[in-house]
Specification:
With 233 residues, this protein is α+β, with helices and mostly antiparallel strands. It is built from ten helices and four strands, in the order H-H-E-H-H-H-H-H-H-E-E-H-E-H. Strands 2-3-1-4 form a four-stranded antiparallel β-sheet. Helix 1 runs antiparallel to helix 2, helix 2 runs antiparallel to helix 3 and helix 7 crosses helix 9. The two termini are 16 Å apart.
């Protein structure tokens, strides 16, 4: 199924910087990952045959668009944290200064809900209802008692080896369901509790996955023409 012309094929500015800046490959991938949070990727950036997908049912009364914006805001702040921590001593000053290393604040609702177990749960009550309910569903699903913000952000340290996935995109699947897409190097089983925490607390009623899915499914959803579920694998 030819999908290459469904979207603009020009890579965005984040990818241009990552490939032209003198960064090593790993650092360039982190910069490109941050770019995909704010600017969804194009077909030209897709170099893998399959992506890992989480299917999320969005809890009302939030709209799908509101959920996507919340999730992007949280991941954007986390990946700003990642890029800000890169060791750029090997680059000329002009190249190092050209890289935007500003860090957007963590959304207040996420900071409020990410207070960890124990006595800190009282602070969680200051979080908005959608975040509190999402945290409760995360716990009910057997994923633990929740995350403290500092520990959650630590998973996004540039040199943290526990996070083996990279953000790709979030798309509308149909109705009140969205797909969260990550590049997990062809794996459908990997450590991803930090992503699940963000997905649930952003206002999810249900989170399923991850599952390894043909990348053409992402291309179709990105262009607004979702394929049948049988396209996954």
């Amino acid at each position: 199924m030819a999908m290459d012309h469904a979207m603009d094929s020009e890579p965005g500015p984040g990818l241009h910087y990552a490939t032209d800046s003198g960064l090593d490959e790993e650092d360039a991938q982190l910069v490109a990952e941050r770019g995909r949070v704010d600017r969804p990727p194009t077909a030209a950036e897709l170099t893998v045959p399959a992506l890992s997908r989480f299917l999320v049912e969005v809890a009302g009364p939030a709209t799908v668009e509101e959920y996507q914006a919340r999730l992007r805001a949280v991941l954007g702040s986390a990946l700003d944290h990642t890029v800000a921590g890169l060791d750029l001593d090997h680059l000329p000053d002009s190249a190092a200064l050209a890289l935007d290393r500003s860090v957007r604040p963590v959304p207040p609702w996420f900071a409020a809900v990410s207070t960890g177990p124990g006595a800190a749960h009282a602070a969680r009550e200051t979080a908005p209802e959608f975040a509190r309910q999402g945290a409760g569903r995360f716990v009910a699903a057997g994923h633990g008692t929740g995350w403290r913000l500092a520990g959650w952000l630590e998973r996004f340290d540039w040199d943290n080896t526990f996070r083996t996935w990279q953000w790709w995109d979030v798309t509308r699947t149909g109705g009140r369901t969205v797909s969260i897409w990550v590049d997990a190097h062809g794996e459908d089983f990997f450590a991803c509790q930090e992503l699940r925490w963000a997905a649930w607390t952003a206002g999810a009623a249900r989170v399923d996955g991850p599952a390894l899915v043909d990348a053409r499914v992402w291309l179709a959803e990105r262009s607004g023409h979702p394929l049948r579920r049988s396209a996954g694998r």
